[in-house]
Amino acid sequence: MRFTFVTLFPKLIQEYFSDSILGRAVNEGKIRIDYRNPRDYTKDRHNRVDAPMIGGGAGMLMTPQPLMDMLRNLKETSPKAHIVFLTPVAKRFTQNDAKRLSNMEHVVLVSGRYEGIDERVIEANADEVFSIGDYILTGGELASMVLCDAISRNVEGVLGNANSLEVESFESPLLEAPSFTKPNIYEDNAVISEFLKGNHSKVTDLKRGLALCKTKYFRPDLYKKGITDEK
Ligand code: ADE
């Protein structure tokens, strides 16, 4: 699967995808990542890619020409590219979206900077528009990295153990139960003793109870949905 980051600041992103699980996925060719910088397409004689908002408003917006020319060129060379814009003014990105988009051949993640992007660019090009949460970031780069990470781990072969996709929070309607590792006792805190006894069905029951508690406490909205879905 291919990702293209459209960003004025590719360096902010590059390091994250050159190490650990996703770095390995890139090296093994499971995912491919490339970058397009709108500044390379500007026809402005001062190389500008931003301008003040028309009609007033604080701050600058990314102008249409560099982004439009770049996206036109990208679509010509990759007609199946699925173009995604990151902005706080959008539907919230979810695990279901991550799974769905992992079946695409090529996802293009367009990050806004300054106060955002001229709306005509979004209207003309967006296949989808996502927000990652109800807060405002200084730019879309972090949001586009969040999408790329969450999508990539659903691409076959990216995670070593395919099972690890199955039991995770958001794959089921409940948050995950707490997990423990060695040592059995750490600074007087013992692992739940039932976990040590090797009775798998008992551990499964216990984990489900704990998952219910966590979900009810942290995410009453998911808890309610989980209970309704099970009926
Ligand atoms: N750009 C700025 N804030 C954002 C958010 N919450 N989600 C996606 N893109 C953004």
Automatic annotation (TrEMBL):
Keywords: Cytoplasm, Methyltransferase, S-adenosyl-L-methionine, Transferase, tRNA processing. Residues 1-225 form the tRNA methyltransferase TRMD/TRM10-type domain. NCBIfam families: PRK00026.1, trmD. InterPro entries: Alpha/beta_knot_MTases, tRNA_m1G_MeTrfase_C_sf, tRNA_m1G_MeTrfase_TrmD, tRNA_m1G_MTases_N, tRNA_MeTrfase_TRMD/TRM10. Specifically methylates guanosine-37 in various tRNAs. This is tRNA (guanine-N(1)-)-methyltransferase. It holds the Pfam family tRNA_m1G_MT. One of its GO terms (cellular component) is cytosol.
